[in-house]
Design brief:
Blueprint (H helix, E strand, L loop, with lengths): L2 H7 L4 H9 L6 E2 L6 E2 L2 H15 L4 H7 L7 H32 L4 H19 L7 H4 L3 H4 L13 H11 L7 E5 L16 E6 L2 H10 L4 E4 L12 E7 L7 H14 E14 L2 H13 L3 H9 L3 E2 H10 L3 E6 L4 E7 L2
Parallel strand pairs: 3-4, 3-6, 4-5, 6-7, 7-8
Antiparallel strand pairs: 1-2, 7-10, 9-10
Helix pairs in contact: 3-5, 5-6, 11-14
């Protein structure tokens, strides 16, 4: 299509298309003789995604980051749109809940309104500013090969297979169930539930991880997203599993992640998390002291570089919110929390 045809097809203007081109968001082919722009089907998918993201307030610079891969498929463009829409929807839900709190409290003083407004602002910043400082896109192709269960001075994957097998054993699924794997990576945990008529949805913030997962396990439905903004409707999944992912969030964000899990989980649902965690702060202190005495400085550096969970924090929050809990500690740093909201 030429520029006028593409603009009409997408219900926008040629000026808008030229603007996105000037910002490096699109690169249509040009005729060598007359420099007319020609837009392919792939260009149209990309532009429709840009228009959708701009419609919900995503900045041009943010879009440039989201669409940094020029060779995305149609499904990937749609997945990015869905993820952005869910983030906006969750933000609007937070705003509505904040207003409801103001009304229900009966205390509409300036101080109270200011406090709730700051709380809302903080939630928005936490959800929108989460970044992958470990660059999982670059790890995707070699991720499975790099999971070493032995031979390291400090091995964070010791007990990996046992932990995943235990999650599979604890989480009871039936035909027709929907299982959500958060931080699915290449699908090592979620694929264990591909049996019978069980539908597995894998959420990850890394597009390349999702691509590898889909190549390995075509039956898994993959969605771009993260713990703090799950791209699913309320009460839409029967079980939630996660492995080696929650430790990338600080403690305050882990609580927000549990809130998101509870939002999408059905009644009588299950949550099972196998991850790097200590029993509690006292256990963390003892483990680190033992590593110091043994001269295991690399181990301490790894622990301090991540956000190993405080199992007691997770358990207390889940209990306070109506879950029955079972816990396992496989070794000093690897634990499991199983919860069910009967």
């Amino acid at each position: 299509m030429k520029i006028n045809e593409a603009a009409k097809f997408l219900s926008t203007t040629p000026k808008t298309l030229r603007f996105y081109e000037s910002k490096g968001l699109i690169t249509p082919e040009k005729d060598e003789n007359n420099q007319y722009r020609y837009y392919t089907e792939h260009d149209l998918y990309r532009i429709s995604t840009i228009l959708a993201l701009r419609e919900i307030g995503v900045s041009v610079e943010e879009i440039k980051t989201l669409l940094n891969n020029p060779n995305l498929s149609m499904n990937q463009y749609l997945d990015i749109q869905r993820s952005a829409l869910f983030e906006q929807w969750i933000e609007m839900r937070d705003m509505i809940e904040t207003i409801d709190q103001m009304i229900e409290s009966g205390n509409n003083s300036i101080e109270n309104i200011h406090q709730l407004a700051n709380h809302l602002k903080n939630l928005k910043e936490i959800r929108s500013k989460w970044q992958d400082r470990w660059n999982f896109d670059d790890q995707a192709l070699d991720y499975d090969e790099n999971i070493k269960k032995e031979g390291h001075i400090f091995n964070v994957h010791e007990g990996y297979d046992e932990a995943l097998a235990t999650v599979e054993e604890l989480v009871n699924v039936e035909a027709g169930d929907i299982v959500l794997d958060i931080g699915i990576g290449t699908g090592n945990l979620g694929s264990r539930f591909l049996k019978g008529e069980v539908h597995v949805i894998g959420v990850d913030q890394s597009e390349r991880m999702l691509k590898v997962c889909k190549e390995k396990h075509p039956k898994i439905e993959t969605r771009k997203g993260h713990f703090l903004a799950l791209p699913l409707l309320d009460h839409s999944v029967d079980s939630i599993v996660s492995s080696y992912a929650l430790h990338h969030l600080p403690d305050e964000e882990k609580v927000l992640a549990l809130m998101e899990m509870t939002r999408v989980l059905k009644n009588n649902g299950q949550i099972c998390i196998a991850d790097l965690m200590f029993e509690d702060q006292s256990h963390r202190k003892k483990v680190i002291e033992s590593y110091q005495q043994a001269g295991k400085h690399i181990a301490i550096e790894v622990i301090e570089d991540e956000y190993f969970a405080d199992k007691a924090l997770l358990v207390n929050w889940l209990r306070e919110n109506g879950f029955q809990i079972e816990t396992i500690q496989f070794n000093d740093i690897l634990g499991l929390v199983y919860a069910r909201n009967y």
